[in-house]
Design a protein that fits this description.
about 270 residues, seven-stranded mixed sheet
Length: about 270
């Protein structure tokens, strides 16, 4: 019979938000889906894997984020020293929602990983004690807008990929490269799935939104979330106040859209179990 710890571990799902194109709404989606899941009663850990630290800035003021980045309790130092990530978790202001902050030093993480043994699996190894603890229902990883060894680390540590795509004329640019990279990662992490494409920065009246939907609809075995995230200045105001949009203004359209997306994400996760 499986132990209680193993049963809890099976319930912990690791989802990576990644897109090699910048401006896709990746960090914004990771932050707000994470917040929405926590508001829906889930225990969520966010991991900021991007040197730009936008995920960290979504929950902490800039001066505090810079202080964390310059200290030693951040992801860069954990990965460089290959230490368990349990010691790098910080609580946010929101119940059930914790964060592992990033650092500007993450810009050099590719160099740090280059000579390491099984370098693609270092994050997975560091994250394993957190998964084994069973403390979280979801661990959400925010990847930088690149393709390389560090993003491969993030995807090798994940159960599934959520691919935010900006509904713009350039939003689909590089998507083929992302799919090729995903295929390469699956050689090391064969259970990794594409949970779905999340459309962001949507203006439903624009022709390119319809064109984007048509192109995505022609792709085989690619799920597009029904819940879209439309252009909304409330998101920018929320970011300026270092809060997720649901905490900034729960009645806003974008807060409701991210809540709907979070429910759809959870439904997809459980459907694939």
């Amino acid at each position: 019979m499986a132990s209680q710890a193993n049963l809890r571990q099976k319930q912990t799902k690791v989802l990576c938000f990644a897109n090699n194109k910048g401006g896709s709404g990746k960090s914004t989606s990771c932050a707000n889906v994470g917040y929405a899941l926590a508001q829906q009663g889930k225990r969520v850990l966010l991991l900021d894997g991007d040197m730009q630290m936008n995920l960290s800035l979504s929950f902490f003021p800039e001066d505090q984020v810079l202080e964390m980045a310059q200290g030693e309790k951040n992801l860069y130092h954990a990965i460089r020293e290959q230490k368990p990530l349990t010691d790098y978790i910080l609580p946010t202001a929101y119940t059930g929602l914790d964060l592992i902050p990033s650092s500007t030093l993450m810009s050099g993480i590719e160099y740090e990983l280059f000579t390491k043994w099984q370098r693609e699996m270092i994050l997975k190894k560091c994250l394993q004690p957190v998964r084994d603890s069973g403390e979280y229902d979801y661990i959400l990883l925010d990847a930088p807008p690149t393709l390389g060894g560090w993003v491969m680390n993030l995807l090798c540590a994940a159960d599934a990929l959520i691919l935010p795509v900006e509904a713009s004329p350039w939003g689909l640019f590089g998507l083929a490269n992302m799919f090729e990279f995903l295929a390469a990662v699956r050689e090391m992490n064969p259970t990794l799935t594409l949970l779905g494409i999340a459309l962001t920065k949507v203006s439903v009246r624009k022709n390119y939104f319809k064109q984007t939907m048509e192109i995505l609809g022609e792709m085989e075995d690619v799920y597009v979330f029904d819940s879209i995230i439309r252009v909304d200045s409330t998101i920018e105001w929320a970011q300026d106040s270092s809060r997720p949009v649901g905490a900034y203004k729960a009645s806003s359209r974008s807060a409701q859209e991210y809540a709907a997306l979070a429910k759809e994400v959870e439904a997809r996760v459980h459907r694939k179990e």
